[in-house]
Amino acid sequence: MALSQKLTESRKGQYEYKFREWGLKKYPMGAAEWKYIKRQMETRKRESGKDSEVYINGVLQSPKKVRYEIGRQGFESTIAKFQEGLSCIEPFFLDPVSG
User: Cα–Cα distances in Å, from 59 out to 55, 72, 86?
Assistant: First the structure.
């Protein structure tokens, strides 16, 4: 009885603090992770023609949820896709041969 009464008296901020302290989030993964999953799924589909199953913390995610999260957070512009693969190379100049 005392525990349930204490829980109802708690404030929203107290719950949010405890959830942060315990490491609980509504969306446990960020955009970078979903972009990585999207690239891995596309690569596997392209190379072997197979669909992928996604496990997060050992739990199989439904294809519907994976599509939703990739659509929500996994967007990459075409320019961003190509910029990741490029590295900045310093130009070199040939010295004119004297002679």
Answer: 5, 20, 35
| Burial (CB count within 10 angstroms: exposed 0-12, middle 13-18, buried 19+), residue 69 | buried
User: pTM for the full model?
Assistant: 0.58
The torsion angles phi and psi of 20, rounded to 5 degrees, stand at -65, -40
Block mean pLDDT (10 aa), the chain, length 99: 62 89 83 89 93 89 92 79 60 50
Q: Alpha carbon 40 to chain centroid distance? A: 12
Q: Could you give the angle at the alpha carbon of 52 between the alpha carbons of 46 and 55, nearest 5°? A: 145
73 near 31, Cβ under 8 Å?
yes
* 15, 41, 74, 76, 83 from 37: Cα distances, Å: 31, 6, 8, 12, 18
